[in-house]
Every structure is written in C-alpha cells, then in structure tokens.
TrEMBL record, chain A:
Compartment(s) of residence: Cell membrane
Keyword terms: ATP-binding, Cell membrane, Membrane, Nucleotide-binding, Transport
Entry annotated with the keyword Magnesium: no
Protein name according to UniProt: Peptide ABC transporter ATP-binding protein
From TrEMBL, chain B:
GO CC term, one of those recorded: plasma membrane
Membrane topology: Multi-pass membrane protein
Protein name: ABC transporter permease
InterPro entries linked: BPD_transp_1_N (IPR045621), MetI-like (IPR000515), MetI-like_sf (IPR035906)
Record lineage: Bacteria, Bacillati, Actinomycetota, Actinomycetes, Kitasatosporales
Species of provenance: Wenjunlia tyrosinilytica
Amino acid sequence: MLHIENLTAELPSATTRRPVLRQVDLRVGTGEVVGLVGESGSGKSTTAKTILRMLPDGTRVRGAVRLEGQDILDMDGPRLRELRSRRVAMIHQDPRAALNPVRTIGDFLTERMVHTLGHSSRQAERQALALLTAVGITHPEQRLRQYPHELSGGMLQRVVIASALAAEPELLLADEATSALDVTTQAEILAILREHQRRRDLGLLFITHDLHLASAYCDRVYVMYAGQVVEQAPAHTLFSSPRHPYTAALLGCTPKLGDHTPVRPIPGRPPSLGDVFTGCPFAARCPAAEPACETWQPVHTRTAEGGSAACRLLERHPAESLPTTSPQEVHP
Amino acid sequence: MAVRALRTSLTLVLTLLAASLVIFGAIYAAPGDPAAFLVGGQEDATPEKLAAVRAAYHLNDPVWSQYGHWIGGAATGDFGRSLQYSDQVSHLIASRLPTTLFLVVYASVLFVVLGTALGALSAVRRGRLDSAIVAVTTLLSSIPKFVKALALVALFAVQLGWFPVSGAGEGFIGRLHHLTLPAFALAMAELAVVTRVTRQSMLDQYPLDHVTAARSAGLSEGKVVRRHVLRNALPPIVTMCGLLTAGLFAGTVVIETAFGISGMGSLLVGAINTHDFPVTQAVLLLMVLAYMLVTTAVDLVHPVLDPRVRLHRSPA
C-alpha cells in the first residue's frame, strides 16, 4: 500500500552536510504493522513527515512516496489536504503538545470532522462520542467539554488515537506514540492501537527507539542509522538473529531481565547532520569494521530470513551470522 | 464568583482612593494660590475679598479636611464648582465626555483592527512585506503625536480638503468625519505596538506541535491560522490592546489641543493653565477611573481566552 522508493531528502540548513534521508526504501502493506527503529536523529521521524509532506520549506526531496500508486511528492494542495485528512493519520509523540491547550477535547475531535470531512457538527459530536468510547474513555460526554490540561497523558493519547481513527484512514503513522507514557499506560495504548489496527485492517507504521518493543509489536521492522535503512527483517527473526552490526549493537545495549551480562553501550556518538561519510556510516562505531568499510557504499544484501541488510561483511559471507550477534563471543 | 466580584470591586475602590490622594496632593503642592487667581485680573484684590474666596472654597481648612470634603463630594458625583467657568464641574464634564469617549473608542477600533490585521499579515506572509510593515509602523510610532497631528492636518485637511481642520462635529456621521484625523493621530503609535505584539505572538505559536498537528490533520492553512495560530496568540494581544486603550485617555490631552476639540483633554489643559483645581482633580480622577475600568475588563476577559488561567485562580 505504502511504497517509499529510493527516498533522499536534504534539509536547507547551513549546518547540514549530508542528506537527512539517504536512499530509503520502505513498504507498508494493508493491515501490516511495520516498525521503524533508530536513535534520535536517525531519520525515522523525517520519514514519517515525508509521508505527510510536512518537511520544512526548502527541503529537497528525491525518490518516490507512493500510496496506492499515487506519488505523494507530486500532489497539489487539495489532494494533499485530502491525503492528510482522510487517508493517512498521524499519532503524535506528545499528546499534551499536540492538542491546542485553549480548546476543548470536543473542539479538537469535531474540528477535524467538520472542517476536513464535511460532517455536520451534530453528526461529528455523535461520532466523537462513539470514538471516545471505542478507545476506552469513560464519561465521554463530560470529556468532550474538558480541556487538555484536565486530562492525563494516557487519556490524551487515547483522544489523539480517536481523532486519528475518525477519518477511517488507510495508514496510521505512530511517531513514538507511547514513549512519553508510563509503562502500564503504554501497554494499554499499544493494545488499543493494535485492536483498532486489526479491526479496520489498517497499515501501521510504528516509529520507536525501542527495538525490543518494535520486534515484539510489529510484523516487520526497519532499522535506520544516519538517515539510511541499515536492516529490514521480519520482526521475529530480528531479535534472534540480527544481521547488521548496528542492529546487534542496539540489542546488546538494552539490559534484559534475568540476564546479568553487562550492558554494552555502542561506542562513539550518534552521527549528527554535520558528519559526512565516505563509506558505511556505522564503520566508525562498528566492532567488526575493516578498513575497506570506510569506502564501501552501502548496498542491501538479501538475508536468509527474508529481510535485507546493508553491511559489507554480509556480501562476503551472506550465510554466516555476524560475530557481534552473540554476546558471549564479544564479552567472555 | 460573588467573592471574586466583591474582591475585584474592593480593589478598584481602594486603588481609586490611593490615586485620589496622589492627585489631591499634587494639586495641593502645586505652586500658586488659587484664591489669588480667582480674584486675579481685578484691581480690587483686597485681603478681605481673598479671605472671602478662601472661605467659600474651604481653602483655609486643614489639608485632610479639604481632601475629605472633596472626596466625599466626588463619591456622590459632586466635584464642586469650576473656578474659571463658574459652573458645576459635573456639568462641564458631562458636556465634554461624549466627544472624548467617541474619540477614544474610534482610535481604539482603528488600532485594534488595523494593528491585528497588519500583525497577522506580517506573521503569515513574512519576507519583504513583513519587513515593510515593521519598518513603516516603527517609523510612525517614533514620531510624536502632535507632529503627526500637524502633518495629517496639513495633508488631508488643508491640501486635500477631505477632513475639517478642527472641531468635533455634530451627530454620528459629523463626529466620524471630524474625528477621523484626530483618531488616526492618536492611534498610530498604538497601532505600531499592536502590530508588533500580534506578529510576535503569532510567530511564537507557529512552531508549536498543536499547529503542526492541525496542519497534518488536513486543515487548510487559513483555518490553521485562524483557529490555532491567531486564536492562541490572542491573550497577549488583548492585554496589550486594553492597556493601550486605557492609556489613550492621557493621549487626548495633546490631540484635542492640537485639533481644537472641546473634550476632556483640552478641558484638563485649560484647567491646569488657569489653576482651576476642582476641574483638574475631577478630570484626572476620571482618567484614572477609565484606566482602571479598562484594565479590569481585560483581567476578566483573560480566563475566557485561556482556560488554563481559570485553573490557577483557586481561592488562595
């Protein structure tokens, strides 16, 4: 349904010396939950913004972003507004910031239905009540008249999800939708999101920095680093056999319950937009890097698990799993 | 609610009392003997006559007694008699107040409407238009009011003959016609301030997440600007407009004199020049009252514009 092909984006800022996105390929099928994982600044949010064409003015974009065959990058104003209001809905990271603080929850929900979908205000209010009930909010009539500062973060994120579902979109973009919530609320929101995604057969692009959460929650996961997709794989294989050293390193730096091997942070720092790479962007931090990696232009190699990864070492030994994937070998 | 209304009124009365003390003290301390002025010009200013005048105006009483006499009368609407016009001060004010109110309201409408419109235009369009608006409004605000008054008269009244040179006019249309130039001269500096505040307040809203969220939900840019950017930018704009409107009453002193309008401002100037202290005190007190009423109204509007203010106003 959503096909991103060879997407490259360059920001107009003077301090950026490399594209914020480089040759990104990404697909989300109908009814598929796709994870997009990476550190801050890896380009995952930019990818989501590109799907809604919300990038800053002056950004140069090459490649294609197709929704059901139509290229979003070529859309004119009215088609773009139709895309944003009916076809693709975004669930924002911080629900408290995403809602206008001086307007009621009811205003927030009905505004979109009245002004973008052409509902009457009574019809919109009825639908708003139904949606609030559907996302598990109690006393919905009362909530409609309340202001954002009177509701909890978890409640507000339910409101945001309700608003995203209002237009019955084909694709949901969840940008760190649960990162700002505490763990129990996070679990509830994830369950609600999953329930509605399944019931309506929506495509869901689930953006998170938490690789464990992504591999547990999604069907397929893309891992991004420095604006590039470095690995994509079915979620269940990613956890057990990561093929790119960066994916392996991400898994290695999260502590696990009952496992007392020391947490290994990835050496170095996440690249900024001022860093330029002559070869593989991860080479400087990669435990398995060889001198040739510094000049090797990343290309994806198919893996046995049905995914692909952009690592030079895989080209040489496509069948072998990476030495970094098993912690015991690195840290005896 | 009733408690808050009571508290607001009490604050109003106390502030007004404090202001009246300052006004009375300032006039009392001002050099010159009002009694000498009252009988001045006449050759027979004998000590007996002066004493008689002093007694008639309670000028021999102790200060506190004079103040009490004045404030007691003022509370019932009796500001005494004018020394210059030999008429009740309240009559003088009643005949001048409508013109000044008209002028202030007219000027306020001008700077509120034009100021927010120009500021919004600046914020939405940015670029060269923005720079032009900021430059022109800054220039206009840096010219003194009386210079603007003279320039407007020279151009629109003398050269083009579109508007009368002076006077306040009769009836609504006549007043509108006569007071257009004074209102513009009065409002230009305020217009520049409102333009600036509107522009900056809107620019502060633009990068916020809720604006981005509204845009990403497919709302048209016009609706995003009206319903989110401008709507949320309103509190500082309204506060500023209120303060400026309240301040306009003082501005009428210059403008009414420049345009030969018979209003509160010119009444005040005349009264000060002739040591007509009952009139001076009354006009000043009314100006303070007007200022306080406008700022109180702004305070009352604020929670309507921003519901978060209501939350913090718990009884403390």
